[in-house]
Specification:
alpha+beta, single chain, 134 residues, 23% strand, globular, 7-stranded antiparallel β-sheet
Length: 134
């Protein structure tokens, strides 16, 4: 089962040269996604915050995560994988970070959908992590 989940995540992240990365600080677990899915500053838009922009290197997006140094891990996905699963990436949106975007979700993200979205993110160690502060 774990191998199948890992393979599905790897398949969801295609060739890195063609990617529109989507990154989020921390582990994008179902509970954190459910807690983070809220109404935004954009009327009618609910979802959770990410950093994302076409053709921007992954390392640059991670550096734009607000307080990136405090996250031991980052979650990395692809806009195409989210779209294929039925989740729209709205970019740009107002918020913190240089490439702020929102993954549109229902205002109250269900556990079922949170599990589906979480599976689209790969958890990676954060090279910017600094346990003692910035």
């Amino acid at each position: 089962m774990i191998f199948a989940q890992r393979r599905a995540r790897e398949a969801a992240i295609p060739d890195r040269h063609l990617l529109h990365f989507v990154v989020r600080g921390g582990l994008s677990s179902p509970p954190t996604l459910m807690a983070g899915s809220t109404l935004t500053q954009v009327p009618g838009l609910a979802g959770f915050s990410v950093q994302s922009a076409p053709h921007i290197p992954l390392e640059q997006l991670i550096a734009e995560i607000p307080n990136a140094w405090r996250y031991r891990f980052v979650s990395v996905g692809a806009a195409s994988a989210l779209a294929n699963a039925g989740f729209e990436l709205v970019w740009p949106t107002p918020g913190r970070g240089g490439y702020h975007a929102t993954v549109r979700t229902p205002h109250k993200l269900s556990l079922h959908d949170a599990v589906r979205v979480s599976a689209l993110f790969e958890r990676r160690p954060n090279a910017l992590y600094s346990p003692g502060g910035s």
